[in-house]
Each structure stands twice: as C-alpha cells, then as structure tokens.
Specification:
This protein is α+β, with helices and mostly antiparallel strands. It contains 6 helices and 9 strands; from the N terminus they run αβαααβββαββββαβ. It folds into 2 domains: 110 residues, no CATH class; 108 residues, Alpha-Beta Complex (Cathepsin B, Chain A). Strand 7 and strand 8 form a beta hairpin.
C-alpha cells in the first residue's frame, strides 16, 4: 500500500512541475508546404520534426522558405533506407543518411499548373542522385510514447495520462512529438510543438459536444500554415500514436 501511495504522489509532483504553457519550440518551426491531397503527411511531419531540431541546434529562429534547413519533402519521399520498428518511423530512417536536399533544389508542389493534384511528388526524379546535397553530422531517433487502438484509424483510445506524456516529452526533451490521428476517416501525421493549458484550442474533426475543456497543443500541420492551436479534446478523441523525435547524441 505504501508503494502505491508513493507512486501516485510522484506522478502528482511530476504533473505539478510542468509549466502551464510551453512555447520554446515555436520559434524554430519551419512552415510546411500545403500537401493538398497527395497523401504525404508521414513525410511532411517527419521532415518538419528534423527541420525544427536542426533550426533549434543552430539557433535559426523564425525560419523562412529557402533557409538552410528547409528540407525537400520530395527528398524524404524519394530517398531509400531500411528501418526497424513501426511504420510511424520509417520516414525518419531516410533522414539519417547524413545528408539532405534543400527544398529550393527539389521543391514540393501539391498541385499541377492546371490545379490538379500532383501525384508526381511520389515519383523519384531521374536526376535524383545528381542533385546537390547538404551534409550534416546529426542523427535522429524516435522514442515511442504510446500506440493505442486496433489500427491507425482508431479513435477514443487515449487517456489523460497520454496527454501528460506528450507534455512531459516536449518539456523534458525540448523536441517535437510526431503523432498519428484519425483525420475525417483518414489517418494523418503531424507534429506537436507546444501547449497552453489556459488557451482554447480548435476542435478539428471533434464533435462540439465533446469539445469543452480549456487547453490545447500547438500543432505543426502540412496545410501551408505554420502552427495551429488544437484542443486537448481534439487530441483525446482522435489521436492513437505518439513518438518523441530527438537528435540522437
């Protein structure tokens, strides 16, 4: 009995130690291009996490399109690498080759000149191996926080402690958290880059009857906007997996 009470006390103390607002990573977020209907979110999210970590390491604040670590999402899609673990982390292995191609060299365009969906982003360019690359020393790792439910479409599977786990990972590692959630009957991958317990976040794909709590996560999506503030209720209802993405020292 004493052990149980002590464990609960430690959990309570850990929760109390967290700030009510954590925005340290927001200055280093590289805005994603709009992915449109290209189904490239896993590569968008993973590329964005690595961009943020590199911008933070080299103190590149408020990065703009074309800056040093504006990595080509088409590079991440086209590169090949073996990986272990779950499908959530397969794109990260492609960014662990010690190099990347900048978006200015190999841009990502979700739409053709006629405004149609550009499925060509999935095709490896013929000159891919000849394109200029930027060398880096950093390697990256994914630490699983949780995977819940039957599959990537699962909803209503996370608990309050899972929200706490994401907040703790953000504060303790200073790194983004890659999540998968049910996106209007599609699975979708984005980065969580901060939180605010006192703000009212958007309830995307969440019934308004269930969106009542105060507090939300700052999300870096691939919709052509830098960040969104989304409710903890959005997270609670829709999310099913989370990974902390860090520099592997």
């Amino acid at each position: 009995m004493r052990i149980i009470v002590f464990s609960l006390m430690l959990c309570s103390l850990a929760s109390a130690a967290l700030p009510v607002r954590y925005t340290d990573l927001l200055d280093f977020v590289q805005e994603a291009p709009d992915q449109g209907d290209t189904a490239t979110c896993l590569y968008m999210g993973t590329t964005g996490a690595v961009e943020l970590l590199l911008n933070k390491r080299y103190n590149i604040q408020s990065p703009k399109k074309g800056d040093m670590f504006d990595i080509s999402e088409r590079y991440t899609i086209s590169e090949r690498a073996s990986y272990s673990g779950t499908w959530h982390t397969k794109a990260l292995a492609r960014l662990n080759k010690g190099e990347f191609i900048r978006n200015s060299v190999l841009p990502f365009n979700a739409y053709t000149e006629n405004g149609n969906n550009n499925r060509n982003v999935w095709n490896r360019p013929r000159n891919f191996n000849d394109l200029e690359r930027v060398k880096i020393q950093e390697k990256f790792k994914a630490t699983k926080l949780f995977i819940k439910g039957r599959n990537r479409y699962s909803k209503y599977v996370v608990k309050p402690e899972d929200i706490l786990a994401v907040k703790e990972a953000l504060v303790n590692t200073g790194s983004p958290v890659l999540i998968n959630y049910n996106h209007n009957r599609w699975w979708h991958v984005v980065n969580i880059v901060g939180f605010d317990d006192q703000a009212k976040g958007e309830c995307l794909h969440t019934p308004q009857s269930e969106c009542k709590s105060i507090g939300g996560f700052y999300v870096r999506d691939s919709l052509g906007k830098k960040t969104h503030l989304r409710s903890y209720d959005w997270f609670r209802v829709n999310v099913n997996a989370a990974f902390s993405i860090e520099i592997d020292e």
